[in-house]
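User: Thanks for the earlier help. One more: oligopeptidase A. Can you show the sequence and predicted structure together?

Assistant: Of course, both are below.
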Amino acid sequence: MHDSTSISTSISISTPNANPLLDFAGMPRFADIRPEHVEPAIRGLIDENRALIERLTADPATPSWDGFVAPMEEAGERLGRAWGVVGHLHSVFDVPEWREAYNAMLPEISRFYAEVGQDLALFEKYKALHDSAEFATLSPVRQRILEHALRDFRLSGAELPDAQKPRFQEIQEEQSQLAAKFSENLLDATNAHAEWITDESGLSGIPDDARQAARAAAEAEAEGKEGWKFTLQMPSYLPVMQYADDRELRARMYRAYATRASELGNPELDNGPLIGRILALRDEEARMLGYRNFAEVSLVPKMADTPEQVLGFLRDLAAKAKPFAEKDLEELKAFAKAELGLDTLEPWDVAYASEKLREKRYAYSDQEVKQYFPEPKVLDGLFGVIRALYRVDILPDEAPSWDPDVRFFRIEKEGANGPELVGHFYLDLHARSTKRGGAWMDSARSRHRNTWGSDTPVAYLVCNFPGPVGGKPATFTHDDVLTLFHECGHGLHHLLTQVDELAVSGIHGVEWDAVELPSQFMENFCWEWDVLQGMTAHVDTGEPLPRALYDKMIAAKNFQSGMQTVRQLEFSMFDLRLHGEVEASAGPVAIERVMALLDEVRREVAVMIPPAWHRFPHSFSHIFAGGYAAGYYSYKWAEVLSADAFAAFEEAGAGKGSLLDPETGERFWREILAVGGSRPALESFKAFRGREPRVDALLRHSGMVAQA
């Protein structure tokens, strides 16, 4: 059935002395994998793929799915799995040896993928299958995969003249290297700064758990140090900005954070030149492909049709949100002046003053709520929501990992003959100096059928929350809980797929501006009383979250939602216009032009303007080191879909006391999560909701509905 059985099948089965990166029989062998394994494994897999492509393209026969697409996918999947482990370790264990191993092979892997995308003979084989009699006999899913493959070949430069292909390939390689360097600079710059407090009076206002973590950080220094060490890692930085009474400390921390990886810090870590070069390369790529700008290229595989359509969506939302944002800011300024004595509200005062205003207005603080969210109870609650919605079990399991802190779980569902394995996931929750910032889900293995059976999916769920201190379990803010549910939503999209075709199983093949639907959807449950009852227990007393405190949280749910919304719109519009309006035909884009555009966007939508020395673009890794270039708007676009989808649970749960409705959950699984990218996202949404999406639920959930 498959020609791929002749391709180095020996690497599919582990042997005692085999390179552990080439063992695909089970979970990645993190206990055995070393940096020196990277080059031979990846080179060998690249050679295997090249040999297969050469053989398949030389065959004069009309290609078939089983004889052509299947072996291509299987060989490509092995390379993707192995390189995925390397990339994952580069993100979560970024020590010099792994950084060197990753960067040494990055040009090679980028060159290979660029070659494949431009291989005209390979492109012609896919077209021949698409145009053959077999195409009509293929399932709609396989037909969609072929159509996407042809689209991706065109976007990869397959139809370019031969004379232009080497330059296009160089562009892809350099972009990969620049993205990696951008991320590394940001991590190094984040780790480079610390604020040392030696006088305990300087800790005024800072919560005890943050103080304990800072003390532990100081003790962890070589030879141990006196005092307290605060860093720019979010679990350390945020409590200072929210609670520290020392305004000068907040100002220093804010400036250090705002100027990370810029010319205002270590010049060797300045991302400004990288930004200019990345933009120039993207612009050159777009023009070579016949598009006006990179924004148009970015939207080809997305739900949205044109940059103008997206910009219209963002501006319409901004027009609705800005009056609420202006009201939020005026209230904050008035409070800061009257209650805190701050005649001028500076950016480093905003988080501090906002927390004080929230405490005064709603009589509670984030720190108070945090005590009710110890990590074990939060995980129990999260898993309970998943069980209730989808009737699956989440159970502890064992597998090698990259850090002792990492946990491993399996998901099972009840089948006709007993429990059936659905998938596995790793959970890496706590911040480390060797882990890049933020939170994300990534694929360790995707569901698909292959020549040796069927693989169940495996996911990485990674966050940067504070770890345990003082002998107590870690406690999470409610925002942390939202983040955990968000990433778990991505994980469920990957893990609960029921599609066996690799190219569209799980999150694969899902339009980028729809991929946030399941993640943002999950966040909604963090506001439900019946959910919070089951996932809260005071870290000291074990008491569940009091109803009175919950009512205050709900009253404050949309506190400053106007300001938060315009901030996201600012990022989205900046990203879209940067990739749609800034021409780079003359070479690298001067950082001054980038900053000038950001200032222009802020004048249109922002209400709080940062200082002139703020260097936000230099740390905007979503668009310069991630997959969100000209796509950051996806968060808001998908938020419309997710709010509307959650409204179905609100409707089903009306009068029942719980929104955890298993029938609606089963439908959400069947129509959204299960189908992955096997059909257009809009079709999936309409299959679940029975109609086109509406913005009403988002505005209602955000408290941005004009009062009558």
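User: Great, one quick takeaway?

Assistant: The beta strands are 194-197, 228-231, 392-396, 407-415, 418-430, 440-445, 448-450, 453-455, 458-465.
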